[in-house]
Amino acid sequence: MTMNNCLQHLLRIILLCLPLCLAAQKNTVSGNVRDAANGEDLIGATITVLELPGTGITSNVYGFYALSLPQGNYTLRVSYMGYATLEKPVDPTKGNQTLHLQMNASAAQLAEVGDQGRKDDQNISRNEMGWCGSLPKTSNRYRCCSANRTS
User: Fold this and answer.
1) Mean predicted confidence (pLDDT) in 26-35
2) Which of 20, 75, 103, 114 is the most exposed place for a label (fewest CB within 10 A)?
């Protein structure tokens, strides 16, 4: 094989592999998730990609997240307990993107939970606690006080 033939084969291999390499390119979308009111980092916020089920991440202790996505248009859904769910469109075809997300506190509140005690056992007539102890050291007798009775 001559040097010219080797270069031609190498060029063909490169041209055949180039589309595969370009199709496999992924870009990174990253940023921070913060409280819109005070700028506090939201630790553990869940970021999911609506168009790619099973793809998502949680923000770290600094509120930072990073997702590697194939080229295409996507929608990020961000959720965090006590905050309104946020959806943001993202286009990774523009290259690596930094997208800082600001979340607003949710106005929805949980209903009050009530607890009402009741007595099921008819043998219980009082809820007083008893006390058993010894009399002064001069006596060997024990005294038990329970429900205003002395033994």
Assistant:
1) 92
2) 114
- What is the domain-level CATH number for residue 45? 2.60.40.1120
- What are residue 130's DSSP bridge partners? none
What value does the mean pLDDT take over residues 69-88?
92
Question: What are the Cα distances from residue 22, in Å, to 15, 28, 57, 102?
Answer: 11, 15, 25, 33
Is residue 30 a contact partner of residue 66, using CB atoms and an 8 Å limit?
yes
Q: Looking at 25-73, which runs of residues are DSSP E strands?
A: 26-35, 46-49, 56-58, 64-70
Among residues 94, 78, 74, the alpha carbon closest in space to that of 25 is found at 94
**Tally of domains within the chain:** 1
Residue pair 49/115 in contact (Cβ under 8 Å)? The answer is no
Specify whether the CB–CB gap between 104 and 36 falls below 8 A: yes
